[in-house]
Amino acid sequence: MTDQTRQTLAAILASDPTIGPLKAGLIIKRLESPDDPGDAVRLIARPKQVATALGVTVRTVANFAARGSLQKVRIPGSKNAIGYRWSDVRKLAGVAS
C-alpha cells in the first residue's frame, strides 16, 4: 500500500464519527496485511490456557467441549491445532466479557 493510499484511507476513516482512531488504525493494518491472523490468534485460547484460567485439568476442558459447554475452533495458521474462544471461556467461568 502506498503512503498516499494510506493517508487517503486514514482521512476517510477519520471523517467517520463512528470509527475511533484505534479502530481506524486496526482497519488500515488489516488492509496492509490481510493474511496476518493477528487478533484472531489472541482471541483463541489453547486447551492448557483454558485449563489454567478455569483451574481445571486439560481433560476437564475436553469434557466441557464434548458436552457442548465450549466450542472447539481451529487455530489460524495451523492445520490440526484446536483452541477455544476466550469469550466462551469467560461465559463458562461466569465472568462478563
Characteristics:
single chain; 97 residues; mainly alpha; Multidrug-efflux Transporter Regulator, Chain: A, Domain 2; 2 domains; 3-stranded antiparallel β-sheet; 6 helices; 56% helix; elongated
Task: Summarize the structure in words.
The chain is mainly α. It folds into two domains: 3-32, no CATH class; 39-93, Multidrug-efflux Transporter Regulator, Chain: A, Domain 2 (Orthogonal Bundle). Helices cover 56% and strands 9% of the residues. The chain has six helices and three strands. Strands 1-3-2 form a three-stranded antiparallel sheet. Strand 2 and strand 3 (82-85) form a beta hairpin. The chain is elongated and about 50 Å long. The model has no long low-confidence stretch (mean pLDDT 82).
CATH topology label of the largest domain? Multidrug-efflux Transporter Regulator, Chain: A, Domain 2
Radius of gyration: 18 Å
**What is the correct CATH architecture of the largest domain?**
Orthogonal Bundle
What distance lies between the first and last C-alpha atoms, to the nearest angstrom?
A: 35 Å
Task: Outline the biggest β-sheet.
Answer: 3 strands, antiparallel
Flag low-confidence runs.
Answer: none
Put simply, the count of helices is 6
Strand order of the largest sheet: 1-3-2
Order of helices and strands: HHHEHHEEH
CATH class of the largest domain: Mainly Alpha
